[in-house]
Amino acid sequence: MNNTNPLVAWPVSHDSAHIPRTVFRCFAPPRLRPTPIRTWFTQWSEDFSASPLVIQSRHQEALARLAPALLCGEQSAINIFQTEDGHLTRKALSVSSMLFHGIENDEIAHEACLQVLRAKLPASRDEHAIRRRSQAYFAGLGRAESVAHHFGQVAQLDSAVCAVMWYMQHSAVGGNSMIGQLVERIRQDEALHVSISRQHAFTLGLSRDDYSHLGELVRGGLTHMLEFVADSFEDIGIDAGLLFARIKRGAL
Ligand SMILES: [Fe+2]
Ligand SMILES: [Fe+2]
What we know:
Layout: H1 6-9, H2 40-50, H3 57-91, H4 97-119, H5 127-141, H6 147-169, H7 177-203, H8 208-226, H9 230-235, H10 240-249
The site of one fe (ii) ion has 7 residues, from helix 3, helix 4 and helix 7.
Protein backbone atom coordinates (compact mmCIF):
# COMPACT_ATOMS: atom_id res chain seq x y z
CA MET A 1 0.00 0.00 0.00
CA ASN A 2 1.27 3.45 -0.84
CA ASN A 3 1.89 5.31 2.40
CA THR A 4 0.92 8.96 2.15
CA ASN A 5 1.68 9.82 5.77
CA PRO A 6 5.15 11.41 5.89
CA LEU A 7 5.26 11.02 9.65
CA VAL A 8 5.51 7.28 9.16
CA ALA A 9 8.15 7.73 6.48
CA TRP A 10 10.63 9.62 8.71
CA PRO A 11 13.55 9.65 8.92
CA VAL A 12 14.34 9.72 5.22
CA SER A 13 17.83 9.66 3.79
CA HIS A 14 18.53 12.98 2.07
CA ASP A 15 20.85 11.65 -0.60
CA SER A 16 18.81 8.66 -1.58
CA ALA A 17 18.06 8.48 -5.29
CA HIS A 18 14.86 6.68 -4.39
CA ILE A 19 13.06 9.23 -2.24
CA PRO A 20 9.38 8.45 -2.69
CA ARG A 21 7.30 11.21 -4.20
CA THR A 22 5.31 11.29 -1.01
CA VAL A 23 8.23 12.96 0.81
CA PHE A 24 9.81 16.18 -0.42
CA ARG A 25 13.29 17.04 0.80
CA CYS A 26 14.87 20.43 0.39
CA PHE A 27 17.22 20.13 3.39
CA ALA A 28 18.42 17.05 5.23
CA PRO A 29 16.42 16.43 8.39
CA PRO A 30 18.29 16.83 11.69
CA ARG A 31 19.83 13.59 12.94
CA LEU A 32 17.89 13.83 16.18
CA ARG A 33 14.41 14.55 15.05
CA PRO A 34 11.98 14.85 17.95
CA THR A 35 8.48 13.55 17.64
CA PRO A 36 6.07 16.50 17.57
CA ILE A 37 4.10 16.77 20.76
CA ARG A 38 1.01 18.56 19.59
CA THR A 39 -1.73 16.56 18.00
CA TRP A 40 -3.66 19.03 15.81
CA PHE A 41 -1.58 18.14 12.77
CA THR A 42 -2.09 14.42 13.31
CA GLN A 43 -5.84 14.90 13.20
CA TRP A 44 -5.59 17.30 10.27
CA SER A 45 -3.37 14.87 8.33
CA GLU A 46 -5.71 11.96 8.96
CA ASP A 47 -8.79 13.95 7.98
CA PHE A 48 -7.11 15.43 4.90
CA SER A 49 -5.76 12.06 3.75
CA ALA A 50 -9.12 10.37 4.23
CA SER A 51 -11.17 12.80 2.16
CA PRO A 52 -11.03 13.66 -1.56
CA LEU A 53 -9.39 16.94 -2.47
CA VAL A 54 -12.30 18.93 -3.88
CA ILE A 55 -10.61 21.85 -5.59
CA GLN A 56 -10.26 22.64 -9.27
CA SER A 57 -7.43 20.92 -11.10
CA ARG A 58 -5.76 24.23 -12.02
CA HIS A 59 -5.77 25.15 -8.34
CA GLN A 60 -4.23 21.80 -7.52
CA GLU A 61 -1.51 22.40 -10.10
CA ALA A 62 -0.83 25.83 -8.63
CA LEU A 63 -0.60 24.43 -5.10
CA ALA A 64 1.74 21.72 -6.40
CA ARG A 65 4.22 24.50 -7.24
CA LEU A 66 3.68 26.50 -4.06
CA ALA A 67 3.93 23.60 -1.60
CA PRO A 68 7.62 22.78 -2.34
CA ALA A 69 8.67 26.39 -1.73
CA LEU A 70 6.75 26.43 1.56
CA LEU A 71 8.15 23.04 2.55
CA CYS A 72 11.67 24.23 1.90
CA GLY A 73 11.09 27.09 4.35
CA GLU A 74 9.74 24.77 7.03
CA GLN A 75 12.67 22.37 6.71
CA SER A 76 15.10 25.25 6.86
CA ALA A 77 13.36 26.54 10.00
CA ILE A 78 13.55 23.13 11.71
CA ASN A 79 17.29 23.02 11.11
CA ILE A 80 17.77 26.59 12.33
CA PHE A 81 16.06 25.89 15.63
CA GLN A 82 18.02 22.71 16.22
CA THR A 83 21.25 24.60 15.61
CA GLU A 84 20.32 27.49 17.85
CA ASP A 85 19.30 25.29 20.75
CA GLY A 86 22.97 24.81 21.69
CA HIS A 87 23.60 28.56 21.69
CA LEU A 88 20.54 29.07 23.82
CA THR A 89 21.70 26.66 26.51
CA ARG A 90 25.24 28.02 26.66
CA LYS A 91 24.19 31.62 26.87
CA ALA A 92 21.53 31.04 29.55
CA LEU A 93 19.21 33.47 27.85
CA SER A 94 16.14 34.88 29.46
CA VAL A 95 13.91 33.37 26.83
CA SER A 96 12.81 29.93 27.90
CA SER A 97 14.08 26.96 25.94
CA MET A 98 10.52 25.67 26.20
CA LEU A 99 9.51 28.42 23.79
CA PHE A 100 12.14 27.37 21.32
CA HIS A 101 11.16 23.74 21.49
CA GLY A 102 7.59 24.91 20.96
CA ILE A 103 8.62 26.72 17.77
CA GLU A 104 10.61 23.75 16.54
CA ASN A 105 7.61 21.57 17.25
CA ASP A 106 5.37 23.91 15.27
CA GLU A 107 7.71 23.85 12.27
CA ILE A 108 7.79 20.05 12.31
CA ALA A 109 3.98 20.00 12.37
CA HIS A 110 3.82 22.51 9.50
CA GLU A 111 6.21 20.44 7.46
CA ALA A 112 4.27 17.25 8.14
CA CYS A 113 0.99 18.82 7.02
CA LEU A 114 2.51 20.36 3.90
CA GLN A 115 3.99 16.97 3.01
CA VAL A 116 0.53 15.45 3.34
CA LEU A 117 -0.91 18.25 1.20
CA ARG A 118 1.73 17.86 -1.48
CA ALA A 119 1.28 14.10 -1.57
CA LYS A 120 -2.29 14.63 -2.76
CA LEU A 121 -1.38 17.09 -5.48
CA PRO A 122 -0.32 16.35 -9.04
CA ALA A 123 3.42 16.25 -9.68
CA SER A 124 4.81 19.63 -10.64
CA ARG A 125 6.90 19.69 -13.82
CA ASP A 126 9.42 22.17 -12.45
CA GLU A 127 9.66 21.03 -8.84
CA HIS A 128 13.44 20.57 -9.16
CA ALA A 129 13.85 24.16 -10.26
CA ILE A 130 11.61 25.39 -7.44
CA ARG A 131 13.63 23.34 -4.95
CA ARG A 132 16.95 24.68 -6.24
CA ARG A 133 15.76 28.25 -6.08
CA SER A 134 14.29 27.80 -2.61
CA GLN A 135 17.37 25.99 -1.33
CA ALA A 136 19.63 28.78 -2.51
CA TYR A 137 17.54 31.38 -0.69
CA PHE A 138 17.07 29.51 2.58
CA ALA A 139 20.66 28.27 2.69
CA GLY A 140 21.71 31.92 2.54
CA LEU A 141 19.61 32.59 5.63
CA GLY A 142 21.59 29.91 7.45
CA ARG A 143 24.74 32.02 7.18
CA ALA A 144 23.84 34.90 9.50
CA GLU A 145 26.77 36.71 11.11
CA SER A 146 25.56 36.18 14.68
CA VAL A 147 22.85 34.41 16.65
CA ALA A 148 21.10 37.76 17.10
CA HIS A 149 21.06 38.28 13.34
CA HIS A 150 19.86 34.74 12.92
CA PHE A 151 16.80 35.32 15.06
CA GLY A 152 16.21 38.68 13.45
CA GLN A 153 16.07 36.87 10.12
CA VAL A 154 13.69 34.26 11.50
CA ALA A 155 11.35 36.96 12.78
CA GLN A 156 11.42 38.82 9.47
CA LEU A 157 10.92 35.66 7.46
CA ASP A 158 8.07 34.40 9.61
CA SER A 159 6.30 37.74 9.31
CA ALA A 160 6.47 37.27 5.53
CA VAL A 161 5.09 33.73 5.88
CA CYS A 162 2.19 35.20 7.85
CA ALA A 163 1.41 37.43 4.87
CA VAL A 164 1.62 34.51 2.44
CA MET A 165 -0.72 32.45 4.63
CA TRP A 166 -3.19 35.30 4.99
CA TYR A 167 -3.37 35.69 1.23
CA MET A 168 -3.74 31.94 0.77
CA GLN A 169 -6.52 31.85 3.34
CA HIS A 170 -8.37 34.46 1.30
CA SER A 171 -7.61 32.85 -2.06
CA ALA A 172 -9.57 30.39 -4.18
CA VAL A 173 -8.12 27.46 -2.19
CA GLY A 174 -8.76 29.00 1.23
CA GLY A 175 -12.43 28.18 0.80
CA ASN A 176 -11.57 24.50 1.01
CA SER A 177 -12.13 23.97 4.73
CA MET A 178 -9.11 21.70 5.25
CA ILE A 179 -6.70 23.97 3.38
CA GLY A 180 -8.26 27.01 5.03
CA GLN A 181 -7.71 25.44 8.46
CA LEU A 182 -4.11 24.60 7.64
CA VAL A 183 -3.03 28.00 6.38
CA GLU A 184 -4.81 29.75 9.26
CA ARG A 185 -3.07 27.49 11.76
CA ILE A 186 0.33 28.10 10.19
CA ARG A 187 -0.35 31.86 10.11
CA GLN A 188 -1.20 31.90 13.82
CA ASP A 189 1.88 29.86 14.73
CA GLU A 190 4.18 32.04 12.62
CA ALA A 191 2.79 35.20 14.21
CA LEU A 192 3.82 33.80 17.60
CA HIS A 193 7.25 32.89 16.22
CA VAL A 194 7.71 36.46 15.04
CA SER A 195 7.21 37.91 18.50
CA ILE A 196 9.40 35.29 20.22
CA SER A 197 12.22 35.48 17.66
CA ARG A 198 12.19 39.28 17.49
CA GLN A 199 12.34 39.56 21.26
CA HIS A 200 15.15 37.00 21.33
CA ALA A 201 17.09 38.92 18.68
CA PHE A 202 16.81 42.17 20.68
CA THR A 203 17.75 40.37 23.91
CA LEU A 204 20.90 39.22 22.14
CA GLY A 205 21.74 42.80 21.23
CA LEU A 206 20.40 43.29 17.72
CA SER A 207 19.68 46.97 17.12
CA ARG A 208 16.40 48.23 15.67
CA ASP A 209 18.28 49.53 12.64
CA ASP A 210 19.93 46.18 12.04
CA TYR A 211 16.56 44.50 12.43
CA SER A 212 15.04 46.77 9.77
CA HIS A 213 17.98 46.27 7.47
CA LEU A 214 17.73 42.50 7.88
CA GLY A 215 14.05 42.76 7.06
CA GLU A 216 14.76 44.48 3.76
CA LEU A 217 17.27 41.79 2.81
CA VAL A 218 15.17 38.83 3.97
CA ARG A 219 11.91 40.03 2.49
CA GLY A 220 13.51 41.30 -0.70
CA GLY A 221 15.22 37.92 -1.19
CA LEU A 222 12.01 36.08 -0.47
CA THR A 223 9.97 37.99 -3.01
CA HIS A 224 12.72 37.44 -5.57
CA MET A 225 12.53 33.70 -4.86
CA LEU A 226 8.74 33.67 -5.00
CA GLU A 227 8.64 35.50 -8.34
CA PHE A 228 9.38 32.10 -9.84
CA VAL A 229 5.97 30.86 -8.63
CA ALA A 230 4.13 34.19 -9.00
CA ASP A 231 1.91 32.74 -11.73
CA SER A 232 0.81 29.98 -9.34
CA PHE A 233 -0.24 32.60 -6.79
CA GLU A 234 -2.18 34.29 -9.58
CA ASP A 235 -3.78 30.97 -10.54
CA ILE A 236 -5.37 30.69 -7.10
CA GLY A 237 -6.62 34.25 -7.27
CA ILE A 238 -3.84 36.01 -5.38
CA ASP A 239 -2.54 39.25 -6.85
CA ALA A 240 1.17 38.41 -6.67
CA GLY A 241 2.14 42.07 -7.00
CA LEU A 242 0.05 42.97 -3.97
CA LEU A 243 1.38 40.00 -2.00
CA PHE A 244 4.99 40.87 -2.77
CA ALA A 245 4.41 44.51 -1.88
CA ARG A 246 2.88 43.41 1.43
CA ILE A 247 5.86 41.15 2.13
CA LYS A 248 8.29 43.97 1.37
CA ARG A 249 6.44 46.30 3.71
CA GLY A 250 6.93 43.80 6.50
CA ALA A 251 3.39 44.00 7.80
CA LEU A 252 1.96 40.96 9.53
FE1 LIG B 1 6.46 27.13 9.92
FE1 LIG C 1 8.21 29.84 12.10
